[in-house]
C-alpha cells in the first residue's frame, strides 16, 4: 500500500509544470484599458431624467435658456442632445421659442420638453419647476418599466421551473401514493 502511495506522489511531482518566474507568467498577459465613457450603458433609463434635473439647475442658477440648453446638451443622451443643441443654436441666433423647439417636438423622447419650453416662453413662467416635474415623471416611468420587467421575468421563469419540478413531484409524490393505494385496494399488493 505504501509503495502505491509513493508511486502516485512521484508521478504527481513529475507531472507538475516547471517553476517559472512571475514576470514570465505575466509576459503573455494583455491588459486592456476600459474607457468609462464607452463602458457606460447606452440605454440608461435615468439619463434623460438627469438631463432634465441638470437643465433645471442651470435655469435656477440664472443661465439663459440658450446657454443652459447648450451646456446640458454635452452630457445628455443622443436624441435629447441633438434637440437641445439645435434649440440652443436657434435661440442664440434670436429665433422664437416655437421655431427653436419645433424639431424637438417631432421626437417622442423630447416632445414634452419642447411643449413645456414653448409654453414657458409664451407665458413668461419659469421652466425650472417644469423640468423638475418632468424629471420626476421620467424616473417614475423608468421605475414602472423596471417593475414590469421584473414581474415578466418572474412569470417567464416559472415555466421552466415547473417543467423541471413537475416530473420529480410526480415520481416522488404522486406515484408512491397511487402505488400504495392500489396495493390496498386490489387486496394486499398483488401488483408489485
From TrEMBL:
Family annotation (InterPro entries): T2SS_GspF_dom (IPR018076)
Tagged with keyword Cell membrane: yes
Record-annotated Type II secretion system protein GspF domain positions: 53-171
TM segment ranges: 165-186
Signal peptide stretch: 1-22
Membrane topology qualifier: Multi-pass membrane protein
Pfam families: T2SSF (PF00482)
One annotated Gene Ontology cellular component of this protein: plasma membrane
Source organism superkingdom: Bacteria
Coiled coil (residue ranges): none
Subcellular locations according to the entry: Cell membrane
Alphabetical keyword list: Cell membrane, Membrane, Signal, Transmembrane, Transmembrane helix
PANTHER family in the cross-refs: INTEGRAL MEMBRANE PROTEIN-RELATED, POSSIBLE CONSERVED ALANINE RICH MEMBRANE PROTEIN
Protein name, as recorded: Type II secretion system F family protein
Gene source species: Antrihabitans stalactiti
